[in-house]
Amino acid sequence: MLRMKSTCERCSAPLGLTDRAFICSFECTFCPHCAQQLEMCCPNCQGQLVLRPPRSHSPTERPPQRFKAKLEKLLK
């Protein structure tokens, strides 16, 4: 599962679950301003920075129904 980092790695700006942020394939995370300054290239791995998908809630807040059903089946 994608680890949603809460701050920009370059400027430490706070990034919420639904805020726009950019990540590379190693999940380095940058705010939109820093991503533009870096020309959409990760300074750590030289990979392309792409828009991070938003998440509406934490996975521990509300597990998906299919996950809950699988878990109940395993615990029987």
Please write out the topology.
Layout: E1 22-23, E2 29-30, H1 32-37, E3 50-51, H2 65-75
Antiparallel strand pairs: 1-2, 1-3
Structure, explained:
The chain is an alpha+beta fold and 76 residues long. It has a single domain (1-55), classed as Herpes Virus-1 (2-Layer Sandwich). The protein is built from 2 helices and 3 strands; from the N terminus they run ββαβα. It has a 3-stranded antiparallel β-sheet. A hairpin with a 5-residue loop joins β1 (22-23) and β2. The longest helix is centred in the last third of the chain and has 11 residues, at 65-75. The chain starts with 21 loop residues before the first strand and ends with a helix. The model has no long low-confidence stretch (mean pLDDT 87).
What's a quick, concise take on this entry?
Helices cover 22% and strands 8% of the residues. It has 76 residues and is of the alpha+beta class. Pfam families: DUF1272.
Can you tell me the CATH class?
Alpha Beta
**CATH fold category name:** Herpes Virus-1
* C-alpha-based Rg, rounded: 16 Å
| Low confidence ranges | none
Beta-strand percentage?
A: 5-15%
Placed side by side, the strands forming the largest sheet appear as 2-1-3
What is the terminal-to-terminal distance? 26 Å
Give the CATH architecture: 2-Layer Sandwich
The structure class reads: alpha+beta
Per DSSP E runs of 2 or more residues, the count of β-strands stands at 3
What sort of overall outline do the alpha carbons produce when their principal axes are compared? elongated
Protein name: DUF1272 domain-containing protein
Pfam family, one: DUF1272
InterPro entries: DUF1272
